[in-house]
């Protein structure tokens, strides 16, 4: 008799536990599907999430807002600009960039503010620059030798005519040839004079 009663109690508890689990699962399903998570009225906040951009699966979404459409069209035009056209865009330093790549070696023309013109063929070894050419002053032409140092883009060049009685100390930036450089002319029998120099690379 005791055994039957104990078995009945165990079965009763088992049934109660199973009923509790079913009720719990049913309540959870109602809670998820009844609007607590997936739906509901959020008032003014909901209007900010009604635009199709928040649920559109395609990559070609276009907003109904004219201002947004204009912004998207502008971004699309920027993204479709060929890379080659960007590389061909002229800049004020394009000539200077070419000069920097080849260093100081080459043929140069230096036009001094006192009217003299110095034509040089320069060579470069490391940071050292050297070469020769001629100095033209009116109808007079004389040979000249040059040596100097290139530090970054700054070229400091000393030019001495064949007579050896003068020295032109020239300072210029080969990355910005559109800007004049400066020079100081030292004479054996005359005081030093300063001026500006316009530089161009011939070859």
The H-and-E topology, N to C, reads as HHHHEEEEEEEE
* Main structural class: alpha+beta
Strand order of the largest sheet: 1-2-3-4-5-6-7-8
Give the helix proportion (percent range). Answer: 25-40%
* DSSP strand content: 25-35%
- Count, helices: 4
**Average pLDDT across residues?**
75
Gyration radius (Cα, Å) is 43 Å
The CATH H-level homologous superfamily of the domain at 103-201: Avidin-like
Number of strands: 8
Tell me the CATH topology of the domain at 103-201: Lipocalin
The parts where pLDDT drops under 50 for at least 5 residues are 35-39, 54-59, 79-101
CATH class of the domain at 103-201: Mainly Beta
Largest sheet data: 8 strands, antiparallel, barrel
Shape, per Cα inertia axes: rod-shaped
What does this molecule look like?
- There is one protein chain.
- This protein is an alpha+beta fold.
- Among the domains are: 1-30; 103-201, Lipocalin (Beta Barrel), CATH 2.40.128.30.
- 31% of the residues lie in helices and 34% in strands.
- It has helices spanning 2-36, 66-79, 83-87, 94-102, and strands at 106-112, 117-125, 128-137, 140-151, 154-161, 166-173, 181-187, 193-201.
- An 8-stranded antiparallel barrel has the order 1-2-3-4-5-6-7-8.
- The longest helix is centred in the first third of the chain and has 35 residues, at 2-36.
- The radius of gyration is 43 Å and the shape is rod-shaped.
- Residues 35-39, 54-59 and 79-101 have low confidence and may be disordered.
